[in-house]
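ugh finaly. both done.
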Amino acid sequence: MRAPERIAVLGTGIMGAPMARNIAAAGFSVTVWNRTRAKAEPLAEVARVAGSAADAVAEAEVVITMVDDSAAVTDVLFGAAAAAEAAPEGTLFIDMSSIQPSVARDHADRLAAIGKRHLDSPVSGGEGGAKAATLAIMSGGEDDDFAEAEPVLKAMGTPMHVGPHGAGQVAKLANQQIVGITIGAVAEALLLAEAAGCDPARAREALMGGFAGSKILENHGRRMLERDWVPGGAVHFQLKDMENALEAAREAGLTLPLTEKARDAYRALAGEMEMRGLDHSSYLRWLEALNGRRIGDRRDREP
């Protein structure tokens, strides 16, 4: 099977831009498009910047979408941007956004109806992973399509085929459940440490050496202690993922109480606390408001 050579990347924001750079660095011919052209222009040194989505995909063998949510992906593919119709027959569309599994399956069906192919391949690893090409990539779709896409995906991280259409999004939601709930557990542990007479910074260091050690405790625990709320992953994206996880759970006939409780916290942060644009580690601030107690005396660092 010949590896694809011409790649279009639609959506060049915090994640999409470094992903496009890494694809270009791996030797692929890359065309980029973003609804706000200024966000795509810095990529001109490594890629062709297209004036429209239709122009970007006109000769593409693989089209990668990396946008905010289900509605945005649907609009890029089938709405005003019209990328699906503009791409050549047989083009492989790889959606790397985080959206609802049911929407991913619908996109796969709609693309198949017009002679195009589809993988849902959301990622985990944040902006740092996108820049370092160390993203965890979870793909749903046909075996042959994944095999064709694998060289492109490997330019951005470590891909894994996890099942049929929609399965990639299910795996990403499972990832986001673990992230969102664990952020809450770390916030509760650090607040308890501080309130009950233990140095929370030293407690975190001690816990890092045991079974509680994790990237969440390491990275988000540090953010909490430093009160650094400049987003890597924003509250409103975490909330979207928790809501999507609960929707998938309802479709599967499941009740997930920990996910529901964490969702409620992120909903409060995004809503009445007006912190939707802060890093999701600001879960601590919801917990502090709930308890009337604060960790440390550092000033809050916000975007």
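ok and the 2nd:
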Amino acid sequence: MLYLVEHFYSVQGEGAYTGTPSLFFRFGGCNMKCEGFGCTEKIETGLEIKGCDTIYAVNKEHFSHTWVEITTSDQLSGVLELYNLPESVDVVITGGEPLLNLSDEVFVSFVEELVKNNHRVTFETNATIEPDFQMYPFLKECTYALSVKLQNSGESYKKRISAQVINSITLDAKDAFFKFSIDPDSINASLDDEITEILSYAKNTKVYCMPVAGDKLELERNTPALIEYCKTKGYNFSDRLHMRVWNKEKGV
């Protein structure tokens, strides 16, 4: 079942295209919880649910009231008519884990139409789901922001690292880059070894490192150490522009 959690027109806040005007589609569902990131979202009962910074697109049990079932491609293509968009605006497909939806005909048809209409389509993915580039050649024309999860996510190595998927995407896709979430406590030799291993599966792929953060205060607190780490390793520092400007506000 395909669920759309939210859509909004803003600027890309992270990674290689930071600052680029983009139309976002956030789909529900993920194959990870990433409770190690320690972000929380309070529900109506006052209970705080722990996970990543978009837990409302991961945890259907507590946030199903925001998940809209999508059964036709018109429901998705119609979203583009709701905004005053520049021609061929960038479209970011995120989650959750959006590539879980590649078995859904409506989702696939929507992405194909976006590519045909010359939109740069970026999937924000944890790089554990392999796109079928042979069955759907248009997926090669998309960009993949590979948010491969590290030890600090709290997920097991086996669950979060797939050499096959990373290699397949970076070899076959038109564009791909890594986007790692890093907190100051995880900056150590073990982190270096893990990132080095991941990069070995994708030669000559750009690396962006962004601070783990659930709000603007935590973002500002975690930024200086990560900038120094990027300077030492030669990686690109990625801000989280949307959080710096709008804090935890959704849909902006």
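summary for the 2nd one i guess: The helical segments are 60-63, 73-77, 105-116, 157-160, 163-172, 189-200, 216-233, 241-246.
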